[in-house]
Amino acid sequence: MTRFTSGFTRWIEQRLLHDDPDDLTEAIGFLARAEGLSPDMADHVATITGTMASDVIAAYQADNTEWAGTQATFDRPDLTALDDHLDTVAYCRHPA
């Protein structure tokens, strides 16, 4: 199983007050990406990282800005058309 990582989860892991990141860190990063960062979650992350909630929010926002830029690149019409073409070529070479 592939572990969910983002810039935000790596930011948390680098600042954890204990040595080993756990599934909670991954869950926080995933939920923040999928549902947004609630004030309670920001406070919790600040507690486990020894930072301030404003630092957590800034890291979260920076990661989302970077992720949105990446997604916008992938959603460009020319890249979407290229991806569809490559899928067709791959299927023709190796039908399921």
UniProtKB/TrEMBL annotation:
<protein>
    <recommendedName>
        <fullName>DUF768 domain-containing protein</fullName>
    </recommendedName>
</protein>
